[in-house]
Amino acid sequence: MQPLLLIALTIAGCRGDTPSAPTQSLTPTPLASRHETDDPPRFSDWSAPVNLGPVVNTSFIEQGPSISKNGLSLYFQCGNCPENIGGADIVVSQRASVGDPWGPPQRLGSAINTTSNEQAPRLSRDGHRLFFNSDRPDGFGAHDLYVARRRDKRDDFAWEPAVNLGAGVNTTVDDVQADPFEDAETGTDILYLASGPAGSGGADIYVSVLGSDGTYGSRALVTELNSLSNDRQPSIRRDGLEVFLASDRLGTLGAIDLWVATRARTSDPWSPPVNLGPIVNTTQFDARPALSSDGTTLYFQSTRPGAVGCTSPSGPCVFDLWVTTRSRLKGPD
């Protein structure tokens, strides 16, 4: 394997053996607490999910959404599209304004997609980095996490070649579904990710802190988010006080459900995850949540009935992308 490149990242500018990384519980010390007097935002209940419809969804497999901060670029993977150069490719759909329909998905270039599988794209909050997982042969084994950078956050096709995130994050098992959380008070960059099988059950959720040398340090389990089942696909709210995940733990309505955990301050442990309930979840697969920057829109993948091209009235169908919304509430309870 080629020597790993050091990842010089700045805020301006993704099956088998036991992982080699530490598995002890650890809360990264650089995380800052919110002020006691700060009132966290309150939201309404989630709406009934809506299929994103044709153009975005097809008779093929659409998975792993990620929405840009301005809401105008939707990244996701197509698992079996005939135009793919590999097993799964990452694409982007664009729109002129939040009220406009999504345009036809366009494949990202060779800096991102290869003849291997590229999956689960996730944009950084500043739009300059794109994280994803791939089973390309230069990794540590199975799926590894990679990151690509771009200078112009408005250009969805200007990504520089992706770089492996290194041994602090990646192991010999699947290391997947990264979501970066950037703490505005300290500038600390925390990477949430899933890896497994390992730890307390199947796949588990970990964190890794970006060091001063531009590389991510040894990952650590987020104990309170994990169970004896599969826990994966974290999506953290911009303020760090709410995290969505997918799990098949006890209490799941179907194959995999969407769950949410909260905390009062970023230095606090997460609350026990709560199922989003039957309005959002079904008896099918509901997974890979991706929260909008303002916290009011949740994109996810599902095999529920109503998928584009689905021939079964009751499911399961192929994976399509769906969206549910909520409103931010004003005033006291």
Give the distance, in angstroms, between the N- and C-terminal Cα atoms. Answer: 57 Å
Looking at CATH, the homologous superfamily is Glycosyl hydrolase domain, family 43
The count of DSSP E runs of length 2 or more, i.e. the number of strands, is 22
Domain count: the total is 1
What is the CATH class designation?
Answer: Mainly Beta
Sheet with most strands: strand arrangement: 2-21-20-19
Tell me the layout of helices and strands.
Layout: E1 42-43, E2 50-51, E3 62-67, E4 73-78, E5 89-94, E6 106-107, E7 118-123, E8 129-134, E9 144-149, E10 163-164, E11 174-182, E12 189-196, E13 204-209, E14 220-221, E15 231-236, E16 242-247, E17 257-262, E18 274-275, E19 286-291, E20 297-302, E21 320-325, E22 328-329
Write a compact overview of the structure shown.
By secondary structure, the protein is mainly beta. It has a single domain, classed as 5 Propeller (Tachylectin-2, Chain A), CATH 2.115.10.
